[in-house]
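User: quick one, fold this
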Amino acid sequence: MGVVENPQDAEAAATQRGVIHLVTAAILFSGLSVLAKLVGARVPLPEVILVRSLVTVAFARGTLARGDIPVWGQRRTLLALRGLFGFVALACYFYALMHLPIADAIVIHYIHPVFTLLLATVWLGEALDRRETVFIVGCFVGVVLVTQPQALFGAEAVPADPFALAIAVLGALISAGVYVMIRELRSTEHPVRVVFYNALVASLLSAPWAATTWVTPDAREWTILLAIGVCTFLHQQSMTRGLHMVRAGRATALGYVQVLLAMLAGIWLFQEQVDLVGWCGAAILAVSAGLLATDRKPIPPRA
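Assistant:
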């Protein structure tokens, strides 16, 4: 006689698989962020967006073809809106990345779990339990200590470009809407189709913009741009699959793993300095994100 699997155990296992996808996405996103920082010294932002989007379109279309999966899907308007919002959020993020320290740009971008929690509660009927809330608060405290905003830490903090900061916060707000849309699309749309739509819309919107500022990349820059495209496809596929398995608020909070990776990248590659307070914040962030990632509580029924 076969063993009947407990439905709650099955849901918990699915959640853990989703967590693995999301942590993988965070690692890939950190990699693409470093590459974008490297190539952005000479290659304009719209050109970076265009090339990475075209590469992602090619990979996503090929994946759909190999799996004999229909390209256009059922909820085309929402898929297109996800692409539009994703493009604007990406433009905001890359602008901030090129005008702020890499750790600051990624950290500000990852304020979006707070906004995602609110949207997911209203739109999707998803709410966090107390344990998850504590873990996310711990992550946020770690973020504040790592970034040390001037308003909280006084005049010694290095002032940043106010416009770049505003763009970074706007990108975080729009990103929250993107994550909730992806979560909403999970019932009808294949994850790779969601990735395909996002990249296709970004390609169409960035092409005329890139044409006005085009700088012909050299061999090294082409290599980096193509690597950004590959990282983007793998990141978006992992992120979308993870959001199909993990609640939106918790899923986006797992992206805080990127803060630690970004901080290390800033130290090793860009000679950015981290003081004792920043290291304490990194430790709090690592523990909180680790607890959030290993919590096996299953996804509750949608309200």
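User: anything notable?
Assistant: The CA atoms of residues 5 and 273 lie 50 Å apart.
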